[in-house]
């Protein structure tokens, strides 16, 4: 089984990189990608913990915004982790998360919701990249809402009155940065309409022209109809089709390996990187 989209406590997951490696081994995965939000901080620990026949794909999920203000996530896999241009963008995007969080908290407090930045920081693992899931966890801890999933449905989705956009590269810029760093670019859950505004089918031609390698077709937040539409787009544009769990650990329904990538598609995708960077024990 090949799972190309997971998160650890280096961003907004609940498992440490070492714990995620252990779970992947127990689950019987063949290949695991670690793609923390705007961060490669979990790479070293995951690589050091790796053992057995499990293959490790190092990557990151880059936060993007279209010119129309639509939030898009771009998976960068197999890129050179010392590439200064890409690392600078990741750092700048992380730095933007704190003022964004403050604005979201201000909006909630204006509505009488008892939440503070210190509440959010209290539920964050050490070294984590601050994100909406941590705000959700803080709201659960304060008994404002029952679960992380419920928080996203009712309060933290992209159409919510409390949502605040962030400074980020466009999807095309992110693709070009990933490719320039020698990696491959796969757009994550592009038709997940329950999360808010989504791309249009016509947008994928520009992404392909920028160097996009693949589309995450099979993801729990995309309906069967949406998956079929993405499958057609991928075939029409000759893009790799992936499936992934988007695993975050406890607090989200996503199970490790619940959606996987076909080995032939993964082999095709890996060959598009400028070097063989899959890590083996």
What can you tell me about this protein's structure?
This protein is an alpha/beta fold and 281 residues long. The chain has a domain at 97-156: DNA polymerase, domain 1. Helices cover 39% and strands 15% of the residues. It has ten helices and seven strands. The protein has helices spanning 17-27, 43-49, 84-110, 117-122, 132-141, 148-156, 171-180, 203-210, 224-237, 263-270; strands spanning 2-3, 31-37, 55-65, 71-77, 184-188, 214-218, 240-243. Strands 1-2-3-4-5-6-7 form a seven-stranded mixed β-sheet. A hairpin with a 5-residue loop joins β3 (55-65) and β4 (71-77). The mean pLDDT is 93.
- In the CATH hierarchy, the architecture of the domain at 97-156 is Orthogonal Bundle
CATH class of the domain at 97-156: Mainly Alpha
Ranges where pLDDT stays below 50 over 5 or more residues in a row are: none
Spatial shape: globular
Can you tag this structure with a few keywords?
281 residues, alpha/beta, DNA polymerase, domain 1, 7-stranded mixed beta sheet, globular
Brief rundown of the structure:
The chain has ten helices and seven strands.
